[in-house]
Amino acid sequence: MKNRLKVLRAERDMTQAQLANLLAVSRQTINAIEKGKFDPSLPLAFKASKLFETSIEQIFLYEE
């Protein structure tokens, strides 16, 4: 699954560690999501969308 997490994080001048702390996950989890190696759980996707004040679909792009 592609995502815009890195772009959104960079726009806010936020490190992976800072984002991880806000979402209550590890920095490694953020890194894996940004690289497309790990798909977030639905609760984590909701937390991210609330944090960035946008819809889940604007952050995570589903590809078949």
Molecular structure report:
The chain has 5 helices and 2 strands; from the N terminus they run βαααααβ. The protein is mainly alpha-helical and 64 residues long. A two-stranded antiparallel ribbon has the order 1-2. It is globular, with a radius of gyration of 10 Å.
Q: What is the helix tally?
A: 5
Strand content: 5-15%
Order of helices and strands: EHHHHHE
Count of beta strands: 2
- Give helix % range: 55-70%
Overall SS class:
mainly alpha
The radius of gyration over CA amounts to 10 Å
Please report the distance between the alpha carbons of the first and last residues.
Answer: 9 Å
Please list the strands of the largest sheet in the order they lie side by side.
1-2
What average pLDDT do the residues reach? Answer: 96
Quaternary form: single chain
Uncertain spans, ≥5 residues at pLDDT below 50?
A: none
Largest beta-sheet characterization: 2 strands, antiparallel
Shape: globular
Index terms:
64 residues; mainly alpha; 6% strand
What's the structural blueprint in terms of helices and strands?
Blueprint: E1 2-3, H1 5-11, H2 16-23, H3 27-34, H4 42-51, H5 56-59, E2 60-61
Antiparallel strand pairs: 1-2
Helix pairs in contact: 2-3
Question: What would a concise description of this structure say?
Answer:
The protein has helices at 5-11, 16-23, 27-34, 42-51, 56-59, and strands spanning 2-3, 60-61. With 64 residues, it is mainly α.
